[in-house]
Automatic annotation (TrEMBL):
It comes from Vibrio nereis. It catalyses: 2 chloride(in) + H(+)(out) = 2 chloride(out) + H(+)(in). CDD domains: EriC (cd01031). Chloride binds at S105, I354, F355, Y443. The chain crosses the membrane at residues 33-58, 70-95, 175-199, 206-227, 247-268, 289-307, 327-347, 354-373, 385-410, 417-437. Homodimer. The record marks E146 as: Mediates proton transfer from the outer aqueous phase to the interior of the protein. This is H(+)/Cl(-) exchange transporter ClcA. Its main location: membrane. The gene is clcA. Gene3D superfamilies: Clc chloride channel. It is found in: Cell membrane; Membrane.
Length: 467
């Protein structure tokens, strides 16, 4: 073998090593950050999936307890009241006694933590949100589990940074955001929506960098894999698969988006108003807070017996709506009834989210709109279910002010990829009109309200307690 051939062979042998070294030199991402984001995603996925199973278990056990009460001397309505009141009491007590920041959705708390203005007491938030959410959601109240799952995911992100003593502020911020994305991905089996929720909805707080984006993606994917390995790979909502609507019908989707844009602004203001009313009722007194919360939970236990459509998060109601189970008139009545029940439950400060109730409201009004449009314009061959799906995304976009997240979330939850064009039109119309009316994103409003009330309480404290 000649000297030139030996040199060529040595160069060829060195090429893979040089290519790897060159790749590593270009990619400045610390491997430790990626490994920690993977750990955050796995833990958040496991906790979020376990939380869902726990809520279902409590709901089923509540039904078993009611069946046992039929054969006893206690009337069924009284048993329903007492069981749901006890479950709600657990949620309200844990929140008020141990972690007030676990009240409500919890997403504003994560946004505040990403902004450096809210603490993350994960050792308190995780157990309180988990067991308190089990009680509140298990009682039949109109609350969702996605808000608690996002907050618990963020808390896990901060827990991991504390356990491994991560000092770098950007890394701590990235893992906090990764936990939030993982929480949403696990809550709805929607990894793309989980990623986009952090990137789009939390854009004022999220620190954009290649490292943070990688961490968020890895965490959301790993959380979703955990969810699917336990619950399966089916979409969260089982509903018909729709074909694209005719082009002339797209103007109706824009009209629906405009209507949701107006309603979204009104709904956001009603949410903060309901919270202010409940604060005036209990004035942060624990006994009054627990009494009001227990009564609300008990009343929803009774309502669950006789009118279950106005109770619960509403995700289970969506397939019934889209399968044509109700008339347009009943859907509108149910729509306004669930607005009232959502405001009561979420405004009371129970540890539960507003994500799922909003999706149910969007489905109710969207399907009713579709039924009316079909009756007025039979030549367009309209399927009302398409408007139900568009309504889910539109109300989310109008209230949360995150249209791309709303589009991806609905598509992933329902597996209706053919409706992406009407979804874009509806969500865009909703966001534009909500902005024109001057409305603020719901979670920004809630965070601002929390900070404002905390300052007011600090002013009311005596000087000794401030020291």
């Amino acid at each position: 073998m000649s000297k030139r051939e030996k040199i060529n062979l040595s160069l060829i042998a060195a090429m893979p090593k040089d290519a790897i070294n060159q790749f590593l030199s270009k990619d400045k991402t610390p491997v430790s950050v990626l490994l920690l984001s993977l750990a955050v995603g796995i833990l958040a996925g496991f906790v979020g999936t376990l939380f869902e199973l726990a809520v279902h278990f409590v709901s089923e056990r509540r039904t078993d307890w009611l069946k046992e009460a039929i054969a006893s001397a206690i009337p069924l309505w009284l048993a329903a009241f007492l069981i749901s009141a006890a479950l709600a009491f657990i949620g309200y007590f844990l929140v008020h006694r141990f972690a007030p920041e676990a009240a409500g959705s919890g997403i504003p708390e994560i946004e505040g933590a990403m902004d450096g203005i809210r603490p993350v007491r994960w050792w308190r938030v995780l157990p309180v949100k988990f067991f308190g959410g089990m009680g509140a959601l298990g009682s039949g109240m109109v609350l969702g589990r996605e808000g608690p799952t996002v907050q618990m995911g963020g808390a896990i992100g901060r827990m991991v940074t504390d356990i491994f003593r991560v000092k770098n502020d950007d890394t701590r911020h990235s893992l906090l955001a990764s936990g939030a994305a993982a929480g949403l991905a696990a809550a709805f089996n929607a990894p793309l929506a989980g990623i986009m929720f952090v990137v789009e909805e939390m854009r004022p707080q999220f620190r954009y960098s290649l490292i943070s984006i990688k961490a968020v993606i890895i965490s959301a994917i790993s959380a979703n894999i955990v969810f699917r390995s336990i619950n399966g790979q089916d979409a969260v909502i089982t509903m018909p698969q729709y074909q694209p609507p005719e082009l002339p019908a797209l103007s109706l989707f824009l009209l629906l988006g405009i209507m949701f844009g107006v309603f979204g602004v009104v709904f956001n203001r009603l949410v903060t108003l309901s919270q202010d009313i409940f604060v005036k009722l209990h004035n942060h007194d624990r006994k009054r807070y627990l009494l009001i919360g227990s009564i609300i939970g008990g009343c929803f236990g009774i309502t669950l017996l006789y009118l279950p459509e106005v109770t619960g998060g509403g995700i289970g109601l969506i397939p019934t709506i889209t399968n044509g189970g109700y008339s347009a008139g009943f859907l509108l009545i149910l729509f306004f009834a669930r607005i009232a029940t959502t405001l009561i439950c979420f405004g009371s400060g129970a540890p539960g989210g507003i994500f799922a109730p909003m999706l149910a409201l969007g489905t109710l009004f969207g399907y009713a709109f579709g039924l009316i449009a079909k009756g007025l314009l039979p030549e367009l061959m309209i399927d009302p279910g398409m408007f139900a799906i568009a309504g889910m995304g539109a109300l989310f976009a109008a209230t949360v002010r995150a249209p791309i997240t709303g589009i991806l979330l609905v598509i992933e939850m329902t597996n209706n990829y053919y409706l992406i064009l009407p979804l874009i039109i509806t969500c865009l119309g909703a966001v534009i009109f909500a902005q024109m009316l001057g409305g603020q994103p719901i979670y920004s409003q809630l965070l601002h309200r929390t900070l404002k009330n905390e300052k007011l309480r600090q002013k009311d404290l005596p000087d000794e307690s401030k020291c």
